[in-house]
Specification:
Strand order of the largest sheet: 7-6-10-4-3-13-16-15
CATH architecture of one domain: Orthogonal Bundle
Structural class: alpha+beta
CATH topology of one domain: Neutral Protease, domain 2
Distance between the termini: 158 Å
CATH superfamily of one domain: Neutral Protease Domain 2
Largest sheet: 8 strands, mixed
Helix content: 25-40%
Length: 708
């Protein structure tokens, strides 16, 4: 029984007839209750309940109404259940309910007629149940977990939970207010959780009494906090975390973020149907069950959470797929959720899961949504290996658009179901993804968008194929990312098929020329967002095709030729002109690139002639020098020693000028006077004429007579 309610038997006596009839239990009975739980942190929990019921159902013309029995819900394992009324002990019966964790403690009394009231004092003990037993109630040294169940009309229910101040308090309901009374802290609630009273599950623990185990995971220390003595749980968690963390990082495609300090054992998740990752306190709370799939599901929430993903079904579904995958790799036990029936009474489209209100009795819808999210996500990404799944999950975490280049954030945003579907189809290549989305996720509005999405994606793919390796313009990619398919159609029309084809031709021309794609032209195409920018592409891209060809020709011409052409290119700086053309093309200065390419080609054409002419000129110059040297040496060899120089030449090859100044004491030579090579009578021979002083001339080297 999830919601507490008192149980009363109403009898109606027909005036004038001895027959009895039953009426609804909430007709004409006022219920007020005060329930106090006393927890000492070392033993069983003591519970005291005071209920006051009042008959407010007046008699009718034919019936008189009265109550002669009443009951309250108690834990199935409760002991020492007693009841008194007016100082009299009442016999207590314990009856089972549809919820195996709850029983009804009932008492009988004399008829309670209209206008009368009765107060019943109850007491019982919650001893707790063994760890990993079927029930949810646990009581032990330093911990206690149990259900608070108090019956009564709205506004007439008070619940108090008295604990030592050393014990931390958690509840599935936030209606409790703490009141400090010395060494005791009382958590008090006067509001009701529903029309029947108050129901909540509470967990109390004294951290000083918990068993703690530290484990190092990739340089990060985690504290495992277990119930005292539960070494089986702490050993299991330690083994799984150490073995599974590398697999977990591969599955999500990211390193461990370190945003976790503690993994705590508790029973609350077993009652609620889910464990949790508390980013505020940096802890994971999981049940006592040895479930590796659930453990890694919660650990994956270090990445997969509402701060990065817009739709709950997306991050919960991914967490379940990742958790089950890692558990399978570590060999740990894991309990998989069965696929729910899509037409179940509590079924909801997953796109509406965030709108489910648990306080409004939608627990069955919540359970369905968890199972449906797991089923849908398994169909979407469960077939991908880690090499494909990891990058896809990482892209979803970063908020990438499937229509942008991987690793870029041209159109960032929280990943919702739509962006995920795009990633699964574009990056993951998963066939049948849209059918899964229609079955489990889409509502009527989403289905209409899916109908428009298919032709939009087909048209987008055609344009993307035409423009080669470049991405389609940013405006079109933004519209596709946002599922704004009318805007996408308008963008495609404005871009036109010619621009996409021209973009492909630019790339083909670059490949043919052996050049990289012109960066600025590519940026202009991929970055276009407006009608004006789309229109400019119609001029820029065809011009770019021409210029790329011209630059390619210039680069090829600069690389052609032999040694003579290379010399001419060096003299004409052909490489510099070709480099200028490439730089201008890369910058998008197409006219400058064309001019530089033409200049480089012209210079390259003239380079062989210039190289040849330069070599010939050098050869002629060298030949002239050689001839001059040969002739000069020949003259010197032909002149006998001591013979006057011809034409006034000096022996050293120099020629005196008319205005030369004679040396001191030497008169200028007259015509017919002895020259430099003639010695005066009696002059000593010099080293230059090859003789030594005092040496007699040889027979065949008679001295010439001195001319008068």
């Amino acid at each position: 029984m999830r919601a507490g309610s008192g149980v009363a038997l109403v009898c109606a006596v027909v005036l004038g007839a001895p027959t009895a009839a039953f009426a609804a239990t909430d007709d004409g009975l006022s219920e007020t209750s005060r329930t106090r739980y006393e927890v000492d942190g070392s033993g069983p929990v003591r519970v005291m309940v005071t209920t006051t019921i009042r008959n407010e159902q007046p008699a009718s013309a034919q019936y008189v109404y009265y109550w002669d029995a009443y009951g309250i819900p108690v834990p199935a394992g409760a002991t020492d259940v007693t009841a008194t009324s007016g100082g009299v002990t009442l016999p207590v019966t314990l009856e089972p309910t549809e919820d195996p964790s709850t029983r009804i403690a009932g008492v009988s009394f004399s008829p309670l007629n209209y206008g009368r009231e009765r107060t019943v004092e109850w007491s019982y003990t919650i001893p707790g149940e063994p760890i990993r037993s079927e029930g949810y109630t646990r009581v032990g040294p330093g911990y206690a977990t149990f259900a608070v169940n108090a019956a009564g009309d709205p506004g007439q229910v008070t619940v108090e939970i008295a604990t030592p101040t050393s014990m931390d308090f958690d509840s599935t309901w936030d209606g409790f207010e703490p009141i400090l009374e010395g060494e005791t802290r009382t958590h008090r609630a006067t509001e009701s959780t529903d029309d029947y009273g108050t129901w909540a599950f509470v967990s109390l623990r004294d951290p000083a009494q918990a068993d703690e185990t530290s484990v190092d995971v990739g340089g990060n220390e985690l504290v495992l906090e277990s119930f005292p003595g539960d070494t089986e749980w702490s050993g299991f968690v330690e083994e799984q975390v150490v073995a599974g963390m590398p697999a977990l990082e591969r599955a999500v495609g990211m390193p461990w973020p370190g945003s976790l300090e503690r993994i705590r054992e508790d029973v609350s998740p077993g009652v609620l149907g889910y464990a949790w990752f508390d980013s505020a306190s940096w802890e994971v709370v999981i049940p006592e069950d040895l479930d590796a799939g659930l453990l890694f599901h919660e650990l994956s929430h270090a990445w997969l959470a509402g701060d990065r993903f817009a739709d709950r079904w997306v991050y919960e579904g991914l967490a379940e797929v990742v958790g089950q995958r890692v558990a399978a790799e570590t060999g740990g036990p894991a309990e998989q959720r069965p696929a729910p029936a899509r037409d179940a009474a509590d079924a909801v489209p997953l796109v509406a899961w965030d709108e489910v209100d648990l306080d409004d009795g939608a627990g069955a819808a919540e359970e369905y949504a968890y199972a449906a999210a797991w089923t849908a996500m398994s169909e979407l990404v469960g077939g991908l290996d880690d090499d494909a799944l990891g990058p896809l999950v990482a892209a979803a975490y970063e908020g990438e658009s499937a229509y942008d280049a991987p690793g870029t954030l041209d159109h960032p945003g929280l990943t919702d179901g739509r962006r995920l579907l795009d990633l699964v189809e574009v990056r993951g290549g998963v066939a049948g993804a849209e059918a899964t989305y229609r079955t489990w996720v889409a509502d009527a509005d989403e289905t209409a968008l899916l109908d428009a999405r298919a032709p939009a994606r087909e048209a987008y793919a055609a344009l993307d194929a035409a423009d080669g390796a470049w991405l389609p313009p940013a405006g079109l990619r933004a519209a596709m990312t946002d599922w704004a398919f009318e805007d996408a159609e308008a963008a495609r029309t404005a871009i036109g098929p010619d621009a996409a084809a021209a973009a492909g031709q630019v790339q083909e021309a670059a490949r043919a020329a052996g050049l990289p794609d012109p960066a600025a032209v590519r940026e202009q195409y991929e970055g276009a967002r407006s009608a004006e920018e789309y229109a400019a592409l119609a001029t820029t891209l065809p011009r770019a095709v021409e210029v790329v060809g011209s630059v390619g020709d210039a680069v090829a011409a600069a690389a052609a030729g032999g040694p003579l052409a290379d010399l001419g290119q060096l003299l004409l700086d052909v490489d510099g002109s070709a480099a200028d053309a490439r730089a201008a093309l890369d910058d998008g200065r197409l006219d400058d690139a064309a001019a530089a390419a033409g200049d480089a080609s012209s210079r390259a054409a003239a380079a062989p002639w210039l190289g040849t002419g330069s070599v010939l000129l050098v050869v002629v110059a060298l030949a002239g020098v050689v001839v001059l040297l040969v002739r000069r040496r020949a003259r010197r060899r032909a002149r006998p020693e001591g013979e006057p120089a011809v034409d006034g030449d000096r022996p050293d090859g120099s020629t005196p000028t008319d205005d030369a100044t004679p040396a001191e004491g030497v008169a200028p030579a007259e015509d017919g006077a002895p020259g430099d090579d003639e010695r005066a009578p009696g002059a000593e021979p010099s080293a230059e004429d090859g003789s030594n002083p005092g040496e007699e001339p040889s027979v065949d080297e008679e001295p010439e007579p001195v001319k008068a």
